[in-house]
Structures are given as C-alpha cells and as structure tokens.
Amino acid sequence: MKYSLQNYLYAIDANNASGKNRAIKNFEKSYKKIQKLRENLNKDDDEVLNRYLVRLKTNISAIEDSIKRN
Fold first, then answer.
1. Residue 42: which region, alpha, beta or left (left: phi > 0; alpha: psi -120 to 50)?
2. Distance CA 53, CA 47 (A)
3. What's this model's pTM, rounded to 2 decimal places?
4. Which pLDDT score, from 0 to 100, does residue 7 have?
5. Angle at 18 between CA 14 and CA 24, to 5 degrees
6. How far apart are the C-alpha atoms of 4 and 52, rounded to whole Å?
7. How many CB atoms lie within 10 A of CB 43?
8. In 3D, which of 11, 10, 49 has the Cα closest to residue 30?
9. Cα separation of 56 and 70, whole Å?
10. pLDDT, averaged in runs of 10, over the chain (70 residues)
11. How many Å apart are CA 37 and CA 40, to the nearest integer?
12. Are 4 and 23 in contact, with CB atoms under 8 Å apart?
C-alpha cells in the first residue's frame, strides 16, 4: 500500500494520468486485502487500523477533487 501511495503522488507530480490510475488500482487492491485481514484483529487494533484507512481514503479523495478543479 505504501508503494502504491508513493507511486500515486509521483504520478500526480509528473502529471502522468495513466500512472496515477494504475497506482489507484493498486491502492484499492491493497485496501481490499487489508479489509479482509482486519477480521483477525482484536477490536481495539481494528478500530485504530480503520481510522488510518479512512484517513488515507479521505486524503486521496481530497487530492482527486483538487485535481479535478484545476
């Protein structure tokens, strides 16, 4: 997931639309895998992980909105 996010930011910086889309797809795959693995965590760890995952998705959405406006 970390590398997908890095690639996403690099693609935005380089104005590379296909690289950005590829990085988003890779991020979504990683996100889904993590969501499946969350079932095995205790409640406290699951809540902490969920908080970070939501923050990541929110930030990506904000970046996408910002790009579309410009």
1. beta
2. 10
3. 0.85
4. 95
5. 95
6. 16
7. 7
8. 49
9. 22
10. 95 94 96 94 96 96 90
11. 6
12. yes
User: What is the identity of the amino acid at 37?
Assistant: L
Query: Given the structure tokens 């965590």, which residue do they identify?
Result: 41
B/e letters for 10-29, b = 16+ CB within 10 Å, e = fewer, are: ebbeeeeeeebeebbebbee
Q: Which amino acid is at 19?
A: G
**Taking the CB of residue 41, how many other CB atoms lie within 10 A of it?**
13
Give the whole-angstrom CA distance, residue 45 versus residue 20: 30
Both tokens of 17, joined, read 């639309």
Are the CB atoms for 60 and 24 separated by under 8 Å? yes
Helices and strands, number each (H, E), in the chain: 3, 0
